[in-house]
Amino acid sequence: MILVTGATGFLGQRLCRRLEEASIAFSRTSLSLGTDLRNFAQTLELFEAVRPTTILNCAGFAGGIQFGLKQPADIFRNNMPMIANLFEAAHQTGVKRIVNPLANCVYPSELMVFEESRFWDGPLHESVMVYGLLRKLSWMGSWAYAKQWGLQTINLVFSNMYGPGDHLDDVRSHAVGGLAMRFLEAHRRGAPEVIVWGSGAPVREWLYVDDAAEAMFRAMTCAPCDQPVNVGIGKGVSIADVAERIGSIVKYNGRIVYDRSKPDGAPHKAVDGTRGAALLGWSPQMDLDEGLARTVEWYRQASIA
């Protein structure tokens, strides 16, 4: 049996859809479905009832850069117990494999292209330090439970995710979702300008959420690997470029103003996806312009509903 944690979230919803398309039986859980993974008794009770052999872990407490800067203690307090409870409950109930996503903020901030061999080569950027270190800790948990108990974990490092189903507020949404909401609102109101946080200069590799779901789907049956596995194509696009593309999709004719009082985060984030392509037999497929158009349309429909 497969268990999807965080099944009602951004990535979890799309992963559940991928499993349904493949006609694969699975169970789902999330806080909104009644199980709090921060509570070990609840977590163990669920695992004992479902008896999963594979866990696709989409659970987490996270948001955009502003969220990380404003609520670092909340991020720490909410994610720490989920990490520990997941591995211990999996061990106690005979889980064979966990597929565990790591954000690319696990890498040192001074790198231009993230390679798995550089995982421990320097400090993380302050804007994402708490969440990044927690995701590194989840890799450490996987290593520890593999060494002592033989639990397999495939740790997939994802680039900046975007796509339909993200949060509907500026603070919790990822960068692309926040931009889509601002441009749509400015277009609706006829506003003369859209404010973009930061300078617009940082370069990010953008991973469409369905590509992230496909990577997790393939990781259920790939060869074992106890090291981080990057999922990506090694190419980035600046925040300013993405803002301009979204403005074009929305047909917004006003000015784009960059608020340099807001933090930029790390200057460059792209991943070397060589290991992931070899392990999964696949690389991300979504064209950025098509992915942005789908994302904008989803936010447009969500704002109408």
SSE blueprint and pairings:
Layout: E1 2-5, H1 10-21, E2 26-29, H2 40-50, E3 54-57, H3 65-70, H4 72-92, E4 97-103, H5 129-149, E5 152-158, E6 160-162, H6 175-189, E7 193-197, E8 203-204, E9 206-208, H7 209-219, E10 229-231, E11 237-238, H8 239-250, E12 255-259, E13 268-269, H9 274-280, H10 288-304
Parallel strand pairs: 1-2, 1-3, 3-4, 4-5, 5-10, 6-9, 7-12, 8-13
Antiparallel strand pairs: 8-11
- SSE order: EHEHEHHEHEEHEEEHEEHEEHH
Distance between the termini: 35 Å
Mean pLDDT: 94
Strand order of the largest sheet: 2-1-3-4-5-10
Task: Tell me the total number of β-strands.
Answer: 13
How much helicity do the residues have? 40-55%
Question: Which parts are unreliable, with pLDDT below 50 for 5 consecutive residues or more?
Answer: none
Structural class: alpha/beta
Instruction: Please describe the biggest sheet, giving its number of strands, its sense, and whether it closes into a barrel.
Output: 6 strands, parallel
Structural Rg: 19 Å
Assign an overall shape.
Answer: globular
Percent of residues in beta strands? 15-25%
Helix count equals 10
